[in-house]
From TrEMBL:
It comes from the Eukaryota. Residues 87-213 form the GST C-terminal domain. It comes from Dioscorea zingiberensis. Residues 265-425 form the EF-1-gamma C-terminal domain. Residues 213-272 are annotated as: Disordered. This is Elongation factor 1-gamma. PANTHER family: ELONGATION FACTOR 1-GAMMA 1-RELATED, ELONGATION FACTOR 1-GAMMA 3.
Amino acid sequence: MALVLHAGTGNKNAFKALITAEYSGVNVELVKNFEMGVSNKTPEFLKMNPLGKVPVLETPDGPVFESNAIARYVARLKADNPLYGCSLIEYAHIEQWIDFATTEIDQGIARWFYPRTGYMPYLPPAEEAAIAALKRSLGALNTHLANNTYLVGHSITLADIIMTCNLYLGFVRVMTKSFTSEFPHVERYFWTMVNQPNVHKVVGEVKQAESVFPVQSQKKPAQPKEPAKPKEAKKEAKKEAPKEAAKPKAEAVAEDEEEAPKPKAKNPLDLLPPSKMILDEWKRLYSNTKTNFREVAIGGFWEMYDPEGYSLWFCDYKYNDENTVSFVTLNKVSGFLQRMDLARKYAFGKMLVIGSEPPYKVKGLWLFRGKEIPQFVLDECYDMELYEWTKVDITDEAQKERVNAMIEDQEPFEGQALLDAKCFK
């Protein structure tokens, strides 16, 4: 019995098994005439997967569902398959990146894309949080790929196949060039992978989204169509025409195996009592002040500052002795600011790279909504633990002056030249 994969032709989760089969020399046939919402609701299909999700692989020993499990099964059909690495630690790293691709990349893209399709409620705050979380994950992936062509070792592994397929939906639906340009190593990696002969044979030509998939009206999952009554045939045909026209765009959505995730709960910071300080007003004042900065911007800051609604924090990098290369140090700070994007609505920050020669010192000043550093920032941004955090005592004039100097990019700062100053706003 041949291996038969039950899924539609554009399903990125089906791509995982088909690409793995190409690399492994295994024959996997994609079932013909599969129609999502119809084929996966039949009694025969539900015997293979009671949830009705795709893809499902039909094997001589029984069905296998869940796309990663199917890809693993296909890879293991070839003895000593290099897709699984050459050592126990490579095997562990491959599994590590498969998990990362699933829980971080795939889910991040899903939380951004699916609400726009209308298959779950679209909530702008939830989308904002989803994009911030995805940027954090892509930032971590970008850092790894800065020094690695592939995820593990020096050749393509199963981790690369699964990562590429999970990135595929993002690149073709919501991740435009302006978005992915922040992650140049991820871009290089994705286009390298989709142009590999074994990958290209399955996915075909890939074109990056020119705009973010527009928000659609909420709709129910596709249901099998019932034949229209003769009297109403003309009316029904007219009614169904727009759906048919829209089908190609929504096909990848309907055929994806994952359930649409529930939107995240409201951020606790949005539930705090109103503050007299309006963060956006301060950011505008900071950005628009070109002369008399001390008097206008910094004077305005202290007039606005509300110690009941906001808190100020100094941060000092714990491992400054490692900062021996200027561009690496600057990239480290840029990466931190990129991963702090999830807090943009609730924070303002200045990061200074200090010194005219190595080792360079990294110090920062942060304004956060609330009297403490927000818990979601501590939980989600792993850079936080790389810094010592000290709450500013605004009754201490010396600390207050240090705040002024950091906001102003004062040079010299604490007796040393500034290599660079970066602002998070």
